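## retry 2 of 3
previous attempt timed out at serialization; input unchanged, resubmitting
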Amino acid sequence: MSQNSIVIPTTPPLPGTDLVNDINAALDTLNTSWFGSSAPGTPEQGQRWWDSSVSNTMNDKAYDGASWVSRGTIDTVAHQYNGAMASLALSGSRSAAAWAHAGPGLNVVAATYTDTSSSGAVSGVTAIHSINVPTLAASSVSTYANAATLYIDGPPTAGTNATLTKSWALYINSGIVASLGAMGIGTTSSIGTSSTLRVNIAQAQLGATYTQILADGAHTLSGTNTSVYRGVSSDPSINQNGNNQTTSLTSGGGVQAYYANPVASGATGTVTSITGFVADVRNTGAGVLTNGVGFLAVDVTNSGGGTLSNAYGFYTSDITSASTLNVGFRGGLTAGSGKWNLYLDGSAPSSIVGGIICASVAGSAAVTTNGQAALIQTLGTTSSSATISATRYGTGAANNSELDLCRVNSASIGAVTAVTTGMDLGAVVGCGSDGTSAGVASVRIRMQVDNASGATVGTGVIPGLYTVYTANNAGALTEAMRVDYLQNILLGYNGTTGVKATSATSGFPQMPSCAGAATGTPTVSYTGMCQFIYDTTNNHFYVYNRVAGAWKSVLLS
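## retry succeeded, writing output
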């Protein structure tokens, strides 16, 4: 290893011994490529030099006519070569035996890389192969539409005798791909520099198994796992738009999807289903899946100290399209054990403004009954499908099912303004169809605050009046019976008077009768009450005396 002169003296006399020594010294210099810690003097273009100025390193340099250019280094401890090429171009076609995934163009062979200096936890990223950030400069002012550190022109194309079933521009066989910067799929539009994902797709399709977008919070199911499994777990930085590009989320949604059915001008198109979000939750292994959740809305927090007016776990805005059927939420489960289209097991109440229709036929419209559209309706084609029932489970006489009809003397919900005498409290109406309307009143049971003399509303006291009406042949609801707050029972009272014409043929209270004297002992008796009956054979009016235990009668003539 030397940097001896390679020029043999030409001035005579040159003894043979000196000639041999000079030639050997020159050959040693050529053999070791001017190995040394300093550059050879008076170099010539194309001359090679092994620079040993750095400990344990041999830097392979070549003189380009103006300066020494490094072609790579050799680590004399690890005994490995480290290339330092300014540009690498692989060109030319070649033929070889089948090579599978060991690419004949560029193949980085698997090897072991040993870290000889680190100890303990190593922060940051430890890379085996790296591409550092390049700087793109220009001799004149230039603007580049797209600049890339790594560019792949496209997937392989089929050549002679070759058929490519699938062709990939980039194929990652296994492992996790981490992208800490922004990513665009199917688009080169500006997506900013934050950790965002922009997807522009013409068609989204689930494969034979299923497709997942995994962000934070995803869990692998293996064995027994009771953790929450999320097909999509995201923050408001994910914007998925299938028709046009936007730069922000209108309402701060976690996942925003927009799909359209575009057709050419003057043409028509038919799409069976356009789905903004598909949750395909499966437990394909032998493990235990406690809860399979297609959509989960976790707690809406306000940790920043601002004002949060409304928090919605799921919200559907108004649908204004000219659709035949517009539904905010649709459940397609068929009847079966343990199956519910809507399952609310939270203890908070449910607020429903538009009303509820329980129907045996899907999409049934509300029906106007008794002149009004009720907020709660049951519509069915059989006796059971339109029945409302209340069942109370419990022991003791006080555990009963109850229907409460209440009234507050105010137009503000939540107020407790007291009712006044004569005010209606509620009614139960039996209706039928007359061939024109589905709900014509036939029988009405009316509940009121009694306005009779002495009736007074007070704390915990609402004097009651109970009235039964029936419709006559003219369709008018006429009072047939009432019970006032003093428990007076009025039969045949028409709301104004109980006086009837001597020629009246209807509206009479009726009592039971028997053909002969009453002799049976009533089996059910209430304290202070007496039974009565009329003997149509002997014209006797009988009253049962509970104290004497016998019937008493009076002759009517």
